[in-house]
Amino acid sequence: KQNKTKQNKTKQNKTKQNKTKQNKTKQNKTKQNKTKQNKTKQNKTKQNKMVVVPISDAERQLITTLRGKNEKFDDFSDERLVKFLRARDLDVDKAAEMLSAHLVWLHEVKPATITVDDIKNVMVNGSWRYLGKSKNGSPVVLVNAGEWKPENYTREDNLRYLAFWVTKIYQLVDDQLTQLVLIFDQTDGTIAQTTYITHSFDLVDVGQNQFPETLERAFFINGGLIFESAWKLISPLLNDKTAGKIKFISGDEVTPALLEVLDENLLPKIYGGKAELVPRPNLPGVPNC
Fold this sequence. Notes:
This protein is of the alpha/beta class. Helix content is about 50%, strand content about 10%. It has 10 helices and 5 strands; from the N terminus they run H-H-H-H-H-E-E-H-E-H-E-H-H-E-H.
């Protein structure tokens, strides 16, 4: 009897020890899982921080040098000037040449004076709408090819439309170094639209030469054969820096790619989000179509 009692006690002790080990193992796994989850949250938080690269001390010195090239450059803020410098890899002479051409463009287009009435026809037949701000605070603009009717307005009207949009977008951000996200939905694009390829050339010029370093990311959705033919003409105009910010997505890639930058409560349902599609242009102070 004494031996059996000892054996039973030994078994009980072993059982307790095993349970203790199991509990410790579970606790360790729980801690590890929580640590992983925290790291994941931290990484997401880092990714969602505002994509703004502050002006460095070296860049401020170059800005001072750049201002000395032309007294008219004093009309620009440091934030505007540094974008031209960065677009030309901090080469002051090249940035000055780029800015001089931009001054001519400003004189001809006068973007600051463009009103809604000046581009009313394009507003009705255009395809741009403001969705809101991304997870990191960047403005997000959706361009739907299915709504685009370029045959109803001129190239000059289109240029004013683009200039108006960029000007309005920068009124929505606190930091002029903030960049924007563009989503181009090519799902319902038509062959007829490819005959207005010069409108796309103007978009490239405005984005790269007149308002450089403005693009954070661009998504092209469902670019089929029609789009591919147009892209062959557009892509050679893009510099390597701009081309590297473009991503082509289709099918099951669309929703996860867009949710990386836009909250599901702002992403339209047609792209896998929870939001209704907002009217165009959805810009503060501008009547919707």
